[in-house]
From TrEMBL:
UniProt xrefs under CDD domains: crotonase-like (cd06558)
Family: Belongs to the enoyl-CoA hydratase/isomerase family.
Protein name: Enoyl-CoA hydratase-related protein
Species whose genome carries this gene: Microbacterium invictum
InterPro entries from the UniProt entry: ClpP/crotonase-like_dom_sf, Enoyl-CoA_hydra/iso, Enoyl-CoA_hydra_C
Pfam families found in the cross-reference section: ECH_1
SUPFAM superfamilies, per database record: ClpP/crotonase (SSF52096)
Length: 253
């Protein structure tokens, strides 16, 4: 479930499915895209994205996905469309990230202008246990900020960074004590909304011109790679193990 509120020029979009750790199915992507459109149409001067409950977003909801019939390409193309809309939103955007930000959840953070993370947040790629490919622009983020060796270390191991570690490594804007995160983010968004937003948007466009070519090229390549992996035995085993709540047994095929 996606909710949108508007208050004094600040839009707040909430991923509101804490029972499934705010994991996103295809319908949720459509609803989230629509919420960003409504916020833009309403003339919001700043936007906050957050997740309800203990987790920002655990990624794609794969609880009922059959990898043999799954339209993973369609899903990831919808993710890219959403990320592009988020990145182009005509106002400063802020994300408050607590708990896990994985897979698509990481992509939502990548597409946001300013990301404040709880000190104990968990950031990264759990795909080592799925036999799948890190997607949603994750390769671009990890390579650009961490370099090839650390990026591949995190991908191979599935290790996650705390919010404090992620900020120290340059992934996101600032780490904030968990209890202060939402208040801090809202205060920053309100300050931006009352500022010279046309000047902010000029800077946003310049930063986008430096960032976007690599990000969207990598995101498209991730989608193609994910579709190719869908035919492998390890991909099917990873999904089955996740759904059956057991450890996967990969055979490299």
């Amino acid at each position: 479930m996606i909710t949108l509120t508007l208050d004094d020029g600040v839009a707040e979009i909430v991923l509101d499915a804490p029972d499934r750790r705010n994991a996103l199915a295809l319908d949720d992507l459509t609803d989230l895209d629509a919420a960003y459109r409504r916020a833009a149409d309403a003339g919001s001067r700043a936007l906050v994205l957050r997740g309800e409950g203990r987790v920002f977003c655990a990624g794609r909801d794969i609880s009922g996905v059959d990898p043999d019939t799954d339209d993973v390409t369609g899903y990831l193309r919808a993710v890219e469309q959403l990320m592009r809309r988020m990145a182009a939103h005509p106002a400063p955007t802020f994300a408050a990230v607590q708990g896990a930000a994985l897979g698509v959840g990481l992509g939502l953070a990548i597409a946001t202008d300013v990301v404040y993370v709880a000190e104990t947040a968990m950031i990264g790629s759990p795909f080592a246990q799925l036999g799948a490919l890190l997607d949603s622009g994750g390769h671009a983020l990890l390579f650009d900020r961490l370099g090839p060796h650390r990026a591949l270390d995190l991908i191979y191991t599935g290790d996650l960074l705390t919010g404090t570690e992620a900020v120290a490594a340059g992934l996101f804007s600032r780490a904030v004590p968990d209890a202060d995160l939402l208040t801090f983010t809202r205060e920053r968004a309100r300050a931006a909304a009352s500022g010279p937003t046309q000047a902010f948007l000029a800077s946003k466009r310049l930063i986008a011109s430096l960032r976007d070519e690599r990000l969207w090229q990598v995101t498209a390549a991730e989608t193609a790679g994910q579709e190719a992996l869908r035919a492998t035995d390890d991909y099917r085993e990873g999904f089955a193990a996740f759904q059956q709540k057991r450890r996967p047994v990969f055979r490299g095929a």
